[in-house]
């Protein structure tokens, strides 16, 4: 990040404690506009808890979270969403009684501002945004399909489209390709690659290393709630602490040998 570039998201000395356990411990980092920051680490490292803090579902015990110059640390989740942070969860949540189009339209209509007195009809702008996003994720021809008939991949893509419908500045993606085949992972990756050009900054938690390293401009590896590594993806396999704690010798050796971290998956 250049000296004159203001970060779109900053975490400063953020901690989240549950009794004596610090799930996130004094963590600080900045994310620049249009960046894809990959976040990895062993199970229990504090990755999802960090997302809970940023999105307001579990506010920080200490420290501050700043979005585009505004301190959002104590705002409610819906207020943070309206300020410009959207989140994808690990579980595939949807309204199965609605169509794919209607699921995305919910995000377009309710995700940008409070609707104290919702209208009887969805406005034209929300409808246009929904159609555009279905095209972006490659599901325009499936718009009227009931969600109960959607495949796992389609559910993930509809969740992504619904999050984008809120017009976020920052998108938090928590293990978005879990349970997908390699070809399905590639399809999600194609969509994620387009997001920075649309003005969306991405924070990405993922254990599938080929997905994480292909897409990330920078990687943050967490362990016991702290930063273990932060740097370019091609340095992961050369960091002894990352190899010992997370990658393992075999995966690290494969990364070095191929020179293409996109071919290695670490579960």
TrEMBL record:
Gene3D superfamilies: P-loop containing nucleotide triphosphate hydrolases. It comes from the Bacteria. Keywords: ATP-binding, Nucleotide-binding, Transport. Residues 9-249 form the ABC transporter domain. InterPro entries: AAA+_ATPase, ABC_AA/LPS_Transport, ABC_transporter-like_ATP-bd, P-loop_NTPase. It holds the Pfam family ABC_tran. The keyword Phosphoprotein does not apply. This is ABC transporter ATP-binding protein. The keyword Transcription does not apply. PANTHER family: AMINO ACID ABC TRANSPORTER ATP-BINDING PROTEIN (PTHR45772:SF7), CONSERVED COMPONENT OF ABC TRANSPORTER FOR NATURAL AMINO ACIDS-RELATED (PTHR45772). It comes from Dongia soli. The lineage of its organism: Bacteria, Pseudomonadati, Pseudomonadota, Alphaproteobacteria, Rhodospirillales. One of its GO terms (molecular function) is ATP binding.
């Amino acid at each position: 990040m250049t000296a004159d570039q203001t970060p779109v998201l900053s975490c400063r000395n953020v901690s989240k404690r549950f009794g004596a356990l610090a799930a996130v411990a004094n963590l600080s980092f900045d994310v620049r506009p249009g960046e894809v920051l990959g976040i990895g680490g062993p199970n229990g490292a504090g990755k999802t808890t960090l997302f809970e803090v940023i999105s307001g579902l579990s506010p920080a015990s200490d420290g501050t979270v700043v979005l585009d110059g505004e301190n959002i640390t104590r705002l409610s989740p819906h207020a943070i969403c309206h300020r410009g942070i959207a989140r994808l969860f690990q579980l595939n949540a949807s309204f199965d009684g609605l169509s794919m189009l209607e699921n995305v339209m919910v995000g377009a209509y309710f995700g940008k501002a409070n609707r104290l007195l919702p209208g009887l009809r969805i406005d034209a702008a929300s409808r246009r945004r929904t159609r555009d996003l279905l095209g972006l994720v490659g599901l325009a021809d499936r718009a009227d399909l009931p969600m109960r008939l959607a495949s796992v991949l389609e559910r993930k893509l509809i969740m992504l489209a619904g999050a984008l419908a809120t017009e976020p500045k920052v998108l938090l993606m928590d293990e978005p390709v879990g349970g997908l085949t390699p070809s399905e992972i590639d399809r999600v990756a194609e969509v994620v690659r387009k997001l920075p050009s649309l003005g969306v900054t991405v924070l990405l938690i993922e254990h599938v290393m080929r997905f994480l390293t292909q897409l990330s401009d920078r990687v943050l590896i967490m362990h016991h709630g702290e930063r273990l590594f932060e740097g370019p993806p091609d340095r992961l396999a050369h960091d002894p602490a990352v190899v010992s704690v997370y990658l393992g010798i075999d995966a690290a050796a494969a990364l070095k040998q191929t020179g293409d971290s996109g071919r290695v998956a670490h579960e």
